[in-house]
Design goal:
Blueprint (H helix, E strand, L loop, with lengths): L2 H8 L3 H7 L14 H11 L1 E4 L5 E7 L20 E8 L8 H20 L2 E2 L8 H8 L6 E10 L7 H14 L7 H4 E3 L8 H8 L5 H7 L2 H14 L7 H9 L4 H12 L4 H13 L10 E6 L4 E6 L7 H18 L4 E4 L15 E8 L1
Parallel strand pairs: 6-7
Antiparallel strand pairs: 1-2, 2-3, 3-5, 4-5, 7-8, 8-10, 9-10
The structure holds flavin mononucleotide.
Length: about 375
């Protein structure tokens, strides 16, 4: 699924969506989840996805109750439980080391953010779920596949009883929700530890491409224009079955309204844009709120290197995939495009502190 289409699907600023998202562990009954939202989410999730480094990821939604060690609303009555989405990766593919987890983090977070855009609650569960149950939902071949995480989904329950409130406070203390590390510990320029300056990033990278150009690149606008032309030529002709089908595929005029809306929402200062893009990474979810991603902006290469502060927890690879998605999605929103690469060790000359591991690079177009 194209990233851009996710934005266009709901017409929401992804940075707002990212800021609004937080892990939801208490859910209302299933009846409060609008059927249309459930279908949209299930349609996006179910099937095979491919991460930026080529790993195949299978996802499936389930109506079954999942074992989550009581971290998530669980009730004897099925309809009082949330629904779930389960995902697994192929582990026997020829991808660079640990990129299966990075790809999984990146792809699964698309579902999380899409749910967020719909106002539907989710919570990454990388540890507190019963793996056997998840394996059976996806019919996982444990020799070649692995479930890294699942998520419940449903409407958040905000009016909690006393026991639920206690539990929530416990979770909040445990993972320090609503807190994040300051920029100077996470985002750097040229040298690890050298705090990022957003006006320098803005000056180096210049104006983003216009959103209209961006939409063309992704075939959103080009298709529309071509079909308009064709439509004119065929005005007098009788409509054939084929043309009818084309007509159905035609993106609507709505796209133009959306472009205007996007243009209007752009802040004036480029440095503000970059501050916002980094803010959206900062508020990404991470296992035990570790925020173990680090980003170094490389001025001469016009590139952003994504690094892992410590690989002591195997979740760090999922976390970095999530951070990559937040970054790319926010860049796209403002018309900045680029590509992901994993550099070979021999191509990196930087001196990184002990324990810090290189993950991936986003080269700006
Ligand atoms: C890879 C990953 C695994 C996670 N695993 C769990 C989990 O097993 N149980 C849980 O309650 N929360 C889990 N979380 C949610 C984090 O605790 C949460 O994202 C973090 O504390 C930040 O809070 P926020 O999501 O509300 O912003 C996980 C998050 C990520 C990204």
């Amino acid at each position: 699924m194209e990233l851009l289409k996710i934005i266009l699907l709901e017409g929401e600023n992804p940075m707002k969506i990212q800021a609004q998202r937080s892990s939801v562990r208490f859910y209302q009954g299933r009846s409060t989840l609008p059927i249309v939202d459930r279908h949209k989410l299930v349609k996006l999730a179910n099937g095979i996805h491919k991460g930026p480094f080529g790993t195949k990821i299978r996802m499936k939604s389930t109506e079954k109750k999942m074992g989550t060690f009581n971290y998530i609303t669980t009730d004897k009555k099925l309809e009082k439980n949330p629904y779930y989405i389960v995902g697994c990766v192929s582990t026997n593919v020829d991808v660079p080391e640990k990129t299966d987890r990075i790809d999984f983090g990146y792809e699964f977070e698309k579902i999380i953010l899409y749910a967020s855009a719909l106002g539907v609650g989710t919570c990454w569960l990388g540890g507190t779920f019963l793996e056997n149950e998840a394996n059976s939902i996806l019919d996982v071949n444990t020799d070649t596949e692995k479930v890294y995480a699942i998520t419940p989904f449903g409407m958040e329950k905000t009016e909690l009883d006393i026991n639920e409130r206690k539990k929530k406070n416990g979770f909040t203390r445990m993972v320090m929700r609503n807190t994040r590390k300051p920029n100077n510990l996470m985002f750097f320029i040229d040298v690890y530890g050298n705090e990022i300056q957003f006006d320098t990033v803005a000056q180096t990278l210049g104006e983003p491409k216009s959103l209209i150009g961006l939409l063309k690149k992704h075939g959103q606008l080009g298709e529309y224009e071509e079909e308009q032309e064709e439509g004119k030529k065929n005005e007098e002709k009788e409509e054939t079955k084929n043309e009818k089908q084309n007509q159905e595929k035609k993106p609507q005029q709505l796209d133009y309204d959306l472009i205007r809306k996007l243009e209007k929402e752009k802040p004036q200062e480029l440095s503000e844009i970059w501050e916002g893009i980094f803010e959206s990474v900062k508020w990404a979810p991470s296992a035990v709120n570790e925020q173990d991603w680090r980003i170094v902006f490389d001025q001469s290469e016009r590139a952003f290197h994504f690094l892992i502060e410590s690989t002591r927890s195997h979740y760090c690879f999922l976390n970095i995939g999530i951070a990559m998605l937040h970054f790319e999605l926010s860049c796209l929103w403002y018309g900045y495009t680029g590509r992901w690469e994993k550099l070979k060790k021999s191509n990196t000359s930087w001196k990184l502190p002990k324990d810090v591991t290189y993950s991936s690079t986003f080269y700006m177009d």
